[in-house]
């Protein structure tokens, strides 16, 4: 397979806009730890190794425990996540797996209980953004630098 298009070079304005959206989400006031869990969960679902390596490293730097990172794929089966985190993870799955149907009302009702209007809007934008980044990384075949990010 020939080398894929470098999106940063081929569409710099769009890439810059995507980066600005990411920065806006990061400055939204949502907890950094929550945002990293959301990014990792969407990246797990989408199979984005590049983003998983990046965000697991970022989560660790932010103080996230190894146990919670290891358990993330099975978050429903463990009590280590708060109700707020669980609502955010369910919302992440609902929006990431959107081809399975509309975001379920029960999931929306729970995320609505846990987040203010502004927080929910920012959480939704965080999910939209990481799904976009996943698609950029996967389509470009971006590979994680294991030694740098993980090991």
From TrEMBL:
<dbReference type="InterPro" id="IPR029032">
    <property type="entry name" value="AhpD-like"/>
</dbReference>
<dbReference type="InterPro" id="IPR003779">
    <property type="entry name" value="CMD-like"/>
</dbReference>
<protein>
    <submittedName>
        <fullName>Alkyl hydroperoxide reductase AhpD</fullName>
    </submittedName>
</protein>
<dbReference type="GO" id="GO:0051920">
    <property type="term" value="F:peroxiredoxin activity"/>
</dbReference>
<feature type="domain" description="Carboxymuconolactone decarboxylase-like">
    <location>
        <begin position="12"/>
        <end position="94"/>
    </location>
</feature>
<dbReference type="InterPro" id="IPR004675">
    <property type="entry name" value="AhpD_core"/>
</dbReference>
<dbReference type="Pfam" id="PF02627">
    <property type="entry name" value="CMD"/>
</dbReference>
């Amino acid at each position: 397979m020939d080398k894929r298009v470098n999106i940063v070079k081929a569409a710099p304005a769009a890439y810059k806009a995507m980066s600005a959206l990411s920065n806006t989400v990061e400055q939204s006031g949502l907890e950094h730890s929550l945002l990293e869990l959301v990014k990792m969960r969407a990246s797990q679902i989408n199979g984005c190794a590049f983003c998983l390596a990046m965000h697991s490293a970022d989560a660790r730097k932010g103080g996230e425990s190894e146990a919670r990172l290891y358990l993330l794929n099975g978050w429903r089966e463990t009590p280590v996540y708060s109700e707020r985190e669980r609502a955010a993870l369910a919302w992440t799955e609902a929006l990431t797996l959107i081809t399975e149907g509309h975001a379920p009302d029960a999931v929306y009702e729970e995320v609505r209980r846990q987040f203010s209007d502004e927080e929910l809007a920012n959480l939704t934008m965080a999910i939209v953004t990481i799904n976009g980044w996943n698609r950029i990384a996967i389509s470009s075949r971006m590979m994680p630098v294991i030694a740098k990010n993980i090991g």
